[in-house]
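Task: sequence design from structure.
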């Protein structure tokens, strides 16, 4: 099939084979941590040290991971596809950009960015954060926090994402369990605008029935094959 405009939604399963843990698998992050304590504004207000330690640990772990064959295939798709390709990722890692993707939206924020709750400035950040961390923009320790979206907060760039999804001919969802909205609702929006919808995931996701087509298997195996097929068909 020939699709001019492609939107790809990605989730933790895409980075799993790079060594980044997923959230909802048996050994995932939410099996070890209570998300209400480490990934909500209320949790941060209650115990900022615990939240900083959680994200400091993840930031340190992310510093050594590398993109895998699935990230590389999506970057290739953007380079070689005749139409436009956009990636909307729920992942806070930097593996898409490291693989070479440029049309990229981080809807759940970025682990290598810090946000000052006092002045609103965002700064690239690869160090640990703490309550006493001074904001480089306002010079005050006014609540530097990881620049990630917590439960109860609005994901970033939703207007732009809805515009892209509404204009897509092909909507791919890769490595996401379909549990978290509004990301999990994008397939319905793509469908209602007439896009062909495909899930590529290790196993059928929560939203499996919303997709016109599903391909199940590890991302490093199924994504490069699917991209090859798409590029050959244009
Ligand atoms: P989940 O952990 O909920 O789902 C990961 C999905 O990837 C599951 O369906 C797995 O079966 C699949 N998977 C695992 N390994 C895979 C592999 N090698 N290849 C392909 N698929 C694989 O992660 P997300 O759906 O990304 O948000 O989670 C969405 C959001 O919930 C996250 O952004 C995060 C989390 O709580 C916040 O923290 C706000």
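Answer:
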């Amino acid at each position: 099939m020939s699709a001019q405009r492609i939107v790809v939604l990605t989730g933790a399963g895409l980075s799993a084979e790079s060594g980044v843990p997923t959230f909802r698998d048996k050994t995932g992050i939410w099996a070890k941590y209570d998300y209400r304590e480490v990934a909500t504004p209320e949790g941060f207000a209650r115990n900022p040290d615990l939240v900083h330690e959680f994200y400091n640990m993840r930031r340190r772990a992310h510093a050594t991971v590398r993109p895998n064959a699935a990230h590389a295939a999506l970057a290739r798709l953007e380079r070689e596809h005749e139409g436009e390709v956009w990636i909307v990722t729920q992942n806070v890692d930097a593996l898409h950009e490291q693989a070479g993707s440029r049309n990229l939206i981080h809807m759940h924020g970025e682990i290598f960015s810090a946000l000052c709750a006092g002045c609103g400035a965002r700064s690239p950040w690869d160090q640990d954060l703490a309550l006493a961390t001074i904001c480089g923009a306002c010079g005050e320790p006014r609540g530097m926090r990881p620049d990630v979206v917590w439960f109860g907060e609005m994901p970033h760039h939703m207007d732009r994402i809805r515009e892209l999804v509404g204009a897509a001919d092909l909507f791919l969802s890769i490595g996401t369990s379909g549990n978290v909205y509004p990301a999990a609702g994008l397939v319905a929006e793509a469908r209602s605008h007439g896009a062909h919808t495909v899930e590529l995931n290790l196993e059928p996701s929560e939203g499996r029935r919303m997709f016109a087509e599903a391909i199940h298997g590890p991302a490093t195996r199924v994504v490069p094959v699917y991209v090859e097929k798409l590029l050959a068909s244009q």
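The chain has two domains: 5-19+67-108+155-232, 21-64+109-148.
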